[in-house]
């Protein structure tokens, strides 16, 4: 595994100097091997997708959504929204060479529906995240030697849905007993990958405000923690060396050690017990243990925290799926459905397997009932309507439960558009407005004549949030 990680990172460094119009020109480039066994190509795709969803830009999204703080050097400047297009270069390379190029090879050369289905899910995951972060990106025209035109953000989400539908069909043709043992995320279980595909479909429908479609797909989504897509839950040597460790662990011990922390962040404040004004803790909730699990700091690396080298990193999870069901069930079915799904998550959080954290700390998630959201109830001390109080709690719970993903940044932008009265009061790190997107990669600006000029700045809303 170690050598595969090194290979993919080296490939990304080499390819970071060209625009995306060159990334897919694999048949004309003698330096790009196309006879690599599909199993190795797939591992490279997984690693590239992990970097897109759990790497540098994800950490920045956490700084911009109250979940981490950049406190020194580069990350301190980025924390305050001072960011350059170069920060997107690696994500752009991972997307176009690490994922899209490799998936085209797999789809064209392999007859294995399990491999092809898993690869299509990864591509949908990668392009959906990229559309959310950047807005318009090249996709349908990639490989055009005259430069790739940019597709609209909404059309990228539609393309992701098509890929996921195809993936579900491919995976549905695989015997449920078949395994792809070299899959480091889900152990090659087709049933689990199908559930992940449905949760991603629900995610992208939710981003576009299509609540009914999101609810119906989430009903078929990840239905147990063991089916969550996590890095690298199905790799036996994960956490045994630097090359195989959690990306949080690597950044906290590496060249950026001391540059970022969760200390003093909004999420640490709302998880704080004893009670404070913004705390989530009440007679039925004690977040002390989960708060400890989420501590990320150079001086506080701990085997029971998300900073541990073997702590798996969330990508598409059971927690997310339940919170999609809760929000969209509330919006499209009724109050009781939203509450039922919220309590399903609270039941899971009460289990010993939901998260680690200091074993000496308290963890309490008793079921809520209707009266808790009535004016004056423990989840409605400011006397808003019961409906608003329940929706607010669902959104806040999702904000906490999807820590370590880009989803809190996604949802915060979405909710400020649809339900601004109950949006989380996240701090603005600098100036007077929140960032809305990431900058198009500098390599793309340099290498693609069809890149927009000037590029959209970080405060310009993407199409889905207009």
Query: Strand order across the biggest sheet?
Result: 1-5
Q: Given the C-alpha coordinates, what overall shape results?
A: globular
Beta-strand residue percentage: under 5%
**Could you give the count of β-strands?**
8
What kind of sheet is the major sheet?
A: 2 strands, antiparallel
Helix and strand topology:
Elements: H1 2-15, H2 20-23, H3 38-54, H4 56-63, E1 69-70, H5 73-79, H6 89-109, H7 113-134, E2 137-138, E3 150-151, H8 153-172, H9 190-207, H10 211-218, E4 229-231, H11 247-253, E5 260-261, H12 266-270, E6 285-286, H13 288-293, E7 313-316, H14 318-332, H15 335-349, E8 364-365, H16 386-401, H17 407-418, H18 442-447
Antiparallel strand pairs: 1-5, 2-3, 4-7, 6-8
Provide an overview of this structure.
- This protein is mainly alpha-helical.
- It has 18 helices and eight strands.
- The longest helix has 22 residues, at 113-134.
- It is globular, with a radius of gyration of 21 Å.
- Helix 3 (38-54) packs parallel to helix 4 (56-63) and helix 16 runs antiparallel to helix 17.
- The chain starts with a helix and ends in a 19-residue tail after the last helix.
- 47% of the residues lie in helices and 4% in strands.
- It has a two-stranded antiparallel ribbon.
- The chain has helices at residues 2-15, 20-23, 38-54, 56-63, 73-79, 89-109, 113-134, 153-172, 190-207, 211-218, 247-253, 266-270, 288-293, 318-332, 335-349, 386-401, 407-418, 442-447; strands spanning 69-70, 137-138, 150-151, 229-231, 260-261, 285-286, 313-316, 364-365.
- It has a single domain (2-425, 436-465), classed as Alpha Horseshoe (Serine Threonine Protein Phosphatase 5, Tetratricopeptide repeat).
């Amino acid at each position: 595994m170690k050598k595969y990680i090194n290979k993919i990172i080296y490939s990304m460094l080499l390819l970071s100097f060209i625009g995306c119009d060159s990334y897919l020109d694999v048949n004309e480039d003698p330096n790009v091997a196309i006879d690599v066994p599909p199993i190795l190509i797939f591992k490279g795709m997984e690693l590239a997708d992990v970097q897109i969803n759990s790497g540098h830009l994800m950490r920045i999204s956490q700084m911009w959504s109250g979940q981490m703080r950049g406190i020194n050097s580069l990350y301190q400047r980025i924390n305050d929204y001072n960011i350059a297009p170069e920060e997107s270069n690696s994500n752009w390379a991972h997307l176009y060479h690490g994922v899209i190029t490799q998936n085209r090879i797999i789809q064209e050369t392999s007859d294995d529906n399990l491999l092809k289905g898993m690869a299509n899910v990864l591509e949908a995951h990668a392009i959906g995240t990229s559309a959310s972060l950047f807005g318009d990106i090249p996709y349908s025209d990639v490989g055009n030697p005259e430069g790739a035109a940019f597709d609209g953000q909404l059309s990228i989400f539609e393309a992701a849905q098509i890929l996921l539908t195809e993936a579900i069909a491919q995976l549905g043709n695989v015997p449920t007993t078949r395994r792809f043992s070299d899959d480091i995320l889900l152990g090659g279980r087709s049933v689990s990958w199908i559930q992940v595909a449905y949760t991603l479909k629900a995610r992208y429908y939710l981003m576009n405000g299509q609540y009914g479609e999101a609810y119906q797909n989430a009903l078929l989504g990840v239905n147990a923690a063991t089916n969550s897509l996590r890095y690298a839950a199905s790799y036996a040597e994960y956490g045994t060396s630097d090359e195989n460790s959690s990306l949080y662990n690597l950044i906290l011990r590496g060249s950026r050690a001391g540059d970022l922390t969760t200390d003093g962040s909004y999420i640490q404040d709302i998880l704080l017990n004893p009670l404070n004004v913004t705390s989530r803790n009440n007679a039925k909730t004690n977040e002390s243990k989960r708060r400890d699990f989420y501590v990320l700091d150079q001086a506080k690396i701990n085997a029971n925290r998300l900073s541990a080298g073997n702590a798996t990193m969330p990508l598409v999870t059971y927690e997310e799926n339940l919170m999609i069901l809760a929000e969209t069930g509330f919006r499209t079915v009724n109050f009781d459905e939203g509450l039922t799904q919220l309590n399903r998550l609270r039941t899971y959080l009460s289990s010993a397997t939901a998260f680690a954290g200091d074993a000496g700390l308290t963890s309490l998630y008793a079921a809520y009932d209707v009266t808790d959201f009535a004016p004056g109830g423990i989840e409605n001390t400011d006397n808003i309507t019961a409906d608003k109080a329940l929706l607010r709690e669902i959104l806040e719970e999702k904000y906490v439960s999807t820590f370590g993903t880009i989803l809190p940044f996604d949802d915060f932008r979405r909710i400020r558009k649809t339900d601004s009265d109950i949006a989380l009061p996240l701090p603005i790190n600098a100036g007077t407005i929140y960032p809305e997107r990431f900058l198009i990669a500098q390599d793309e600006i340099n290498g693609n004549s069809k890149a927009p000029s000037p590029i959209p700045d970080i405060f310009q809303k993407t199409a889905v949030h207009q």
